[in-house]
Amino acid sequence: MSKEEVVRLLDKLKKQYRLIGKLLYGTGMRLMEMARLRVKDLDFAYKAITIRDSKGNKDRVVMLPESLIDGLHDVLEERCRVFETDLVNGTHDVYMPYALDKKYPNAGREWIWQYVFAAPKLSTDPRTGAIRRHHIFEQSIQRAIKQATYDARINKKVSPHVLRHSFATYLLETGYDIRTIQGLLGHKNVETTMIYTHVLKQGGQGVQSPLDCL
Question: What is the pLDDT of residue 172?
Fold first, then answer.
């Protein structure tokens, strides 16, 4: 999407999803990377977000957009209130990856391990039968972006991943080198990142029409 289309899309997203949309576009995260963010992954002091166990089982660090800091603080404040309620009800335990709950048996009950964007309702973990608050469901974000695309009258097929593509294209347009973009996107091979260079090519092999020179 063009920058103008991104602005229109974000403007049409409902409040609870607008911050998520901005985060996807502003960092280039994949949808599930954003959904699985934990409180401890946000570093406001250094304006950084750590994305853990991304594609290829590697961690990486991306920027935390300064314009989203206040909004994220608001989300965490509300999230903390929900956590305290879950704490009282005994449903505050959160899923821990890679059997970390065996190594750190109390970590899943700590605030820093909670999901930043949590599901509004409790659910039963099919693996253990435990009742806990899962992260936000990706389908709800996909539906919200689809609706916003329609409301914004954008005649393109837009998904959360398109915001990631738009992030990469914008960085190329503004002169960032391909290796920097590769690191931010978490691509294993630079060839994958090079695909975005084709987006910048204009129609007609990049040749300017003489009509546009009149």
Answer: 85
- Quote the number of domains for the chain: 1
Asked about 133 being catalytic, the answer comes back as no
Q: Which residues on adjacent β-strands are paired with residue 124?
A: 131
Give the C-alpha separation, 28 to 34, whole Å.
10
- Whether 138 is in a domain gets the answer yes
Catalytic residue among 30, 38, 79, 165: 30
Neighbours of 197 (CB within 10 A): 13
CATH value at residue 79: 1.10.443.10
Catalytic residue flag (residue 187): yes
Per the annotation, the verdict on 30 as an active-site residue is: yes
Range of the domain at 117: 3-198
pLDDT in tens, 45-57: 999 999 987 776 7
What does the block give as tokens for 213? 């020179």
pTM: 0.84
**Residue 196 catalytic?**
yes
- 41 neighbors 52 (Cβ within 8 angstroms): yes
pLDDT by residue (tens digit) across 107-117? Answer: 778 899 999 99
Sheet holding 58-63, edge to edge: 42-43, 48-54, 58-63
